[in-house]
Give the backbone structure.
Amino acid sequence: MNRIPVNDIRKALEAIIHPESRKNIVELGLVKEIVSDNEGISVTIDSPRPNDPFISSLKSVVVRALKDAFGPDTIVRDVKVPPKVTEKPSEKKPEIVLDDVKNIIAVASGKGGVGKSTVAVNLSIALAMNGYATGLLDADIFGPSIPLMFNALDFRPEVIKNGDASVVLPLERYGVRVLSTGFFVDPDDAVVWRGPMASNFLKQMLTMAEWGELDYLIIDLPPGTSDIHLSLVQEVAVTGAIIVSTPQQVALADAVKGIAMFRNEKIDVPVIGLVENMSWFTPEELPGNRYYIFGREGCKALSEKTGIPLLGQIPIVQGIRESGDSGRPAVLDNTPVAEAFRNLAEKVAEQVAIRNRDLGPTKRVNIN
Ligand code: ADP
């Protein structure tokens, strides 16, 4: 076969019009290379849109255009088009997105009894006091302490019909909308539940609740790193997690496991901060003294090691325990410890804002 000049080939390819832009493929810059010799013609096509359906059909269209232009015996040796890109399926696909809830924050701890629920409760009330619409879900299914801390042991949520759907109305107290597993089931009954039952119940509570528009929904997770955690944080579009620990080594070791769980690539929930609880003890009669009963600055060291911000240090105060038990959380009073919880709430809001700003409005984890 006689060599066909490249310019003639380019001209022939101008007959091929992209259906969307109505421009020809040469004009669009899609023809990257034309090689022509006595053996035949090779054309390489490129596209900035990897999965353009037009491009994948282009092979035969180019061959036809060249044979139309130079005769049916024209040898078209090769038409290279960019391969289809198969998208890598995302490891984590949250199914549950609450449209009216801007940020879902999971409060977790490696170990039980470190004050996770105390922090979750006081943090949610402090956020509400700071002007944020806030909800609290007590997901600590086997040991729900929130009914007691909100003085709502006898509260039973109303379930109303909204069209075909049943809607659960949360408790509204201290400016926070609250739901607890303890409002529905006796913890003694829940103990015999298997993991999937517990996580299904939690997901149901989360999605059936009439939360209204919320800036923050705080989830008080069970302690540890169980299947319930995995299922909940994998399926719910959680904005970030807060890990509560005491400065004690055994608690910190478990906190590290908690951090690893959230950072696992299958979970991939950012840990937005650490909260050190029971940091020191100050007796009322010696307000200037600090006794580091569980060790000193353990969470600070962990923060430095992991790069996770330390959001606050809460001292051991008899009033925190008493107020928790009496159903009027400590943050409501005008005390130094109340201020510590309000500062914590500010820090949480700050970290969430940084995260959402970094991700940009279209990539916000929870509302997309
Ligand atoms: P968790 O949710 O980690 O199991 P809780 O929040 O239920 O822990 O706290 C365990 C106990 O410790 C509760 O009686 C609570 O009132 C008490 N407590 C928690 N934090 C403090 C604190 N900073 N000072 C005094 N008591 C505290």
